Amino acid sequence: MRIVFHLGVHCTDDGRLIRSVLRSRSAFLDRPLHVPGPRSYRSLLRETLGILNGATASDEVQSLLLDALTDADEAERILLFHENLICLPQRIVSEQGLYAMAPRRLEAIANLFPGHQCEFHLALCNPAVLIPSLVQRGVAESYDAVMGGADLGRQRWLPTIRRIVEANRAIDLTLWCSEDAALIWPQILRRICALPPDMALDGDTDMAAALMSDAGAAALRDGLAADPPASAEAWTSRVSAALEEHGRDEELTLPVDLPGWTGEVVADLTEAYIDECAAIATMPGVRFLSPPG
């Protein structure tokens, strides 16, 4: 059995991925794929991780967890969604960098199911967007509290992903840039569900639609249904054009008004993020999803 974890990151899809999977479930009802309700496992997984403290689960504990996740004996793939499992939002930023806890947390999560294969899925996010989003969402009382005295220049993804891979040599890790999500949503859905690339799914345009006006989203869906694109490249091109024409500014841009954050700071963070994602995409042990073409 494969236990598949989507672990965020925070401030990226806001639960849209699980909703898209559930909207698309008619396509895989005859497949051994199970999507349990999050309330049935989120507290249980966190509590079990705390008790084991990184140790490998016994056969008894593993069986108890699996019984809580599914009663379908034929299930071969279980999808779990839990962005707080690797890190609480208050601890995302640290002097050691972004998500410094992630390497040992992923190892601990895999140790919950030693008799099965685990997959991990994460959307990376530009620190110039992630940190303001954390402040905006009030994960701490102020920007200074979010930063906790940590150096802004150390809030990078490459060291974190490198440590994850080094600490978990056999990891099955799929990553993508959250900024690309609307353009690669079909890829993400099919990868997490292990479905064929040519299978039609109701949730394919969900992320793009969330960034557009209602009228624009309806026009996009109707247009794609009436004239299906001949390739993934054509699909991406049409969705990109629809976002440009009908995208809502409040969804596509995030005003940044933080102490010491000039336009130059944002540009430097963004440039570093782009360079790091290009490097991460070439790392052994990482499967990186990106727009076709």
Task: Explain the layout of strands and helices.
Blueprint: E1 2-6, H1 16-23, E2 33-34, H2 42-52, H3 59-69, E3 77-81, H4 102-110, E4 117-124, H5 127-136, H6 143-147, H7 158-167, E5 173-177, H8 181-193, H9 206-210, H10 214-226, H11 232-246, H12 249-252, H13 263-280, E6 286-289
Parallel strand pairs: 1-3, 1-4, 2-3, 4-5, 5-6
Helix pairs in contact: 4-7, 10-11
The number of domains? 1
Q: Name the poorly predicted regions.
A: none
Task: Encode the helix/strand succession as letters.
Answer: EHEHHEHEHHHEHHHHHHE
| Fraction in helix | 40-55%
Residues in β-strands, percent: 5-15%
Strand order of the largest sheet: 2-3-1-4-5-6
What kind of sheet is the major sheet?
Answer: 6 strands, parallel
Describe the structure.
The protein is an alpha/beta fold and 293 residues long. It contains 13 helices and 6 strands. Strands 2-3-1-4-5-6 form a 6-stranded parallel β-sheet, with helices on one face. Helix 4 runs parallel beside helix 7 and helix 10 (214-226) packs antiparallel against helix 11. It is globular and about 55 Å long. It starts with a strand and ends with a strand.
Salient structural properties:
six-stranded parallel sheet; 45% helix; 6 strands; Rossmann fold; alpha/beta; 293 residues
In short:
By secondary structure, this protein is of the alpha/beta class.
